[in-house]
Design a protein that fits this description.
Distance between the termini: 56 Å
């Protein structure tokens, strides 16, 4: 086994610092200088490895939604299972919230969010949809509920939504997500 190259460890340090800085400050306020300082490197190295802040953000925004395997879940619980998962996932990940915040105002972040949801939620919708031709639309509609709820609950902290307990949130959102996944149009 060969030892990791210094460039690999530098790149990893930059990405770690960038994820933390973007999560703490958001895209707009995070600076290359602050990220470099967090990584204990010269700012020119950030530019050398990633080119610019937008490309650094895109590289740092590698998020696994860690979607549940629905194969063992009864089909009539798919919507509730996804909502439960997303509530837990969003509540516990400042980095995912940073991507959501950035996605509202910054096109590269919005594109990254679209890619993540299409690549990770799309296959689930394709497996459970009654008509595979509707899978992309179904995944998109599920995303509207999940992203809209996350925005209102975790970013805007809209009182009625932010105050819902987990069970109530699942009770409200689960049937809608269920209909998007399995319903007929």
């Amino acid at each position: 086994m060969t030892a990791p190259r210094r460039s690999d460890s530098t790149r990893a340090a930059i990405l770690t610092a960038a994820r933390e800085r973007f999560a703490a400050d958001g895209f707009e306020r995070a600076t290359i200088r602050a990220i470099a300082a967090d990584a204990n490197i010269d700012p020119s190295l950030v530019m050398r490895y990633f080119g610019n802040k937008e490309k650094l953000f895109a590289a740092a925004a590698e998020f696994d939604l860690r979607l549940p395997d629905l194969d063992g879940v009864p089909p009539d619980r798919h919507g509730a299972a996804l909502v439960e998962h997303f509530l837990d996932r969003w509540a516990g990940d400042d980095k995912l919230l940073a991507l959501l915040r950035a996605g509202v105002t910054y096109e590269a972040a919005a594109e990254r969010m679209r890619e993540i949801f299409a690549a990770q939620l799309g296959p689930i919708a394709a497996r459970v949809a009654p008509d595979p031709a509707t899978a992309a639309t179904r995944a998109g509609l599920v995303a509207t509920q999940i992203l809209g709820f996350a925005l209102c609950r975790f970013v805007l902290k809209l009182p009625p939504v932010a105050d819902l307990d987990r069970d109530a949130a699942v009770a409200w959102l689960g049937p809608t997500v269920q209909r998007y996944l399995h319903g007929t149009i």
